[in-house]
């Protein structure tokens, strides 16, 4: 079809000979299947780390912030470093789903769901830090402009810290509804496939009764577009405002007008690195290599390379401006960063963030999955050290040399940080087993333009992978049965004949892939019970296919026999 | 009031699009089309009017913007003007630059959330809402077109059979 044309130079985004139904089955598979040992191991480790974090947080709240490694000179260290690090990671999701939507980049569709999930989970981690840093968490509501017992005591709207409250909460809540709106059709898909009543109930609840009417889709697309238009400046504003926490102060090393764009680039940089880390593992574990392809990883590597280079330019500009300004304090702050006692952190930051992404200029390296994974970890480490360098090295040698000191974290600092990593992975691992991790409805809409099979058909000719037009629909199945009564008898001979007088018929619609019409057809063939279906093997599937005029191959693809076996046992 | 509809099922979006055009050309009334994913151009082919939801988002954004101005003016200028760090709050316009970030955030907050709520209400989507798709396969790989029957059932069925449908069902609605 000419309307699905896409330039042959664009590489396919869906690999293999897929139909719409294949996409459904493969996206639903991780949710419908059972978790393997690896998942349980990862989940246990993450949960233990999370529990350690909870312990450290409780200890902090119970005893006071004195349990952290902070001192008079370095009054802000790991807490704010971790906050900025997590917020930064939370930038890729909305960037992928919003900015790439505005630019009509189809490759966003394979990865946007997971990237948005990552965004939400990491912003949750980020939000924890300011809250526990308040010391008296039970007064956390004081950051909101709500009437209180002091009459007219309001929050200070001139403070960048309050802007942060508004920016982060707007970002978190808007990302959440953006994510959820996109999830509705996919939850509906899981709902309509669900076999067990409990799953059916849960996914009906989550899908908000999504039905897929033409008008709903029209609104859905418009809402997605407007949300993308709103989220694009929003995502840029969030890290801009985070950078104001530093840039509006008068500390040498912080008082820099380059901070907003530099922080945003750094955030996108670290966010894409984290997306790469997570998706390289997930595509393998959940068998989604056909949807999160090498092409996706390569494109993300290019974004990492570009944003890494922007960050590098910003580092160098900072140094230049410090020298050029002629301000001694500013000059010393940067000299101290590079050559002072924290030179090792500065070197780590420079090599991880500026040097390592430059390898991505090589096509061979950016197409290597292993190399991409290593770089993604390196970048995450580098970006944590960037924040550490900015925050701690600017503070530890202040205007009074007599108060110069160093910072070392206590076990509580480390515990809270590791705890948030654990919490993040607990959420992500649960997500990977219960949510449709690929935006399957959207992926289906690009199958004909970007699917490998359709591209091959258009560019090299051959058979059209799309279903061909049926000229006359079969309204009754009786005629079909007459023609093929021989095959029918063989089939029934193999799987057993159903005796209406002594046996009860099962609800075959419980097998996912069987609708009311197909059930009728099966009944007409003489298949009524799960027991019969569960006896099907390769040979019976072929026989069944020859008896059906549509839905060919479906029984095998959906593993009806396996499903029926389960249903039979559940009865 | 009961009305009879014919539900014709298709297994491909292009066949569905052609069918929708044929049915419209033959002046039959399409009640509804259920699809598993957004089929581009389907709303135009069905003759649906454009959605006005983007306009509501703009209006909600204006509400958020005005609310932010009102709130900060009331709290920081009118009710309790303070001298914070030697930067007194005298007039709204002198303080305004510091209010820009929150004006922006609240405009986005209002526009995004109220638009999504409007969408959910208009499309009748909320927790515990029962799904109304005629067949569970319409969220998988099947497309269903519902055509109203107006005493011409036989004729309509034979017409639809020639549009490439794979299943036809007549139901009361």
From TrEMBL, chain A:
<feature type="transmembrane region" description="Helical">
    <location>
        <begin position="302"/>
        <end position="323"/>
    </location>
</feature>
<feature type="transmembrane region" description="Helical">
    <location>
        <begin position="414"/>
        <end position="432"/>
    </location>
</feature>
<feature type="transmembrane region" description="Helical">
    <location>
        <begin position="373"/>
        <end position="394"/>
    </location>
</feature>
<dbReference type="GO" id="GO:0005886">
    <property type="term" value="C:plasma membrane"/>
</dbReference>
<feature type="transmembrane region" description="Helical">
    <location>
        <begin position="38"/>
        <end position="71"/>
    </location>
</feature>
<feature type="transmembrane region" description="Helical">
    <location>
        <begin position="115"/>
        <end position="135"/>
    </location>
</feature>
<keyword id="KW-1003">Cell membrane</keyword>
<comment type="similarity">
    <text>Belongs to the NrfD family.</text>
</comment>
<keyword id="KW-0472">Membrane</keyword>
<feature type="transmembrane region" description="Helical">
    <location>
        <begin position="83"/>
        <end position="103"/>
    </location>
</feature>
<dbReference type="InterPro" id="IPR005614">
    <property type="entry name" value="NrfD-like"/>
</dbReference>
<feature type="transmembrane region" description="Helical">
    <location>
        <begin position="161"/>
        <end position="183"/>
    </location>
</feature>
<keyword id="KW-1133">Transmembrane helix</keyword>
<keyword id="KW-0812">Transmembrane</keyword>
<dbReference type="Pfam" id="PF03916">
    <property type="entry name" value="NrfD"/>
</dbReference>
<feature type="transmembrane region" description="Helical">
    <location>
        <begin position="343"/>
        <end position="361"/>
    </location>
</feature>
<feature type="transmembrane region" description="Helical">
    <location>
        <begin position="262"/>
        <end position="281"/>
    </location>
</feature>
<feature type="transmembrane region" description="Helical">
    <location>
        <begin position="223"/>
        <end position="242"/>
    </location>
</feature>
<protein>
    <submittedName>
        <fullName>Quinol:cytochrome c oxidoreductase quinone-binding subunit 1</fullName>
    </submittedName>
</protein>
Automatic annotation (TrEMBL), chain B:
<dbReference type="InterPro" id="IPR021776">
    <property type="entry name" value="ActD"/>
</dbReference>
<keyword id="KW-0472">Membrane</keyword>
<dbReference type="Pfam" id="PF11821">
    <property type="entry name" value="ActD"/>
</dbReference>
<keyword id="KW-1133">Transmembrane helix</keyword>
<feature type="transmembrane region" description="Helical">
    <location>
        <begin position="96"/>
        <end position="120"/>
    </location>
</feature>
<feature type="transmembrane region" description="Helical">
    <location>
        <begin position="53"/>
        <end position="76"/>
    </location>
</feature>
<keyword id="KW-0812">Transmembrane</keyword>
<protein>
    <submittedName>
        <fullName>Uncharacterized protein DUF3341</fullName>
    </submittedName>
</protein>
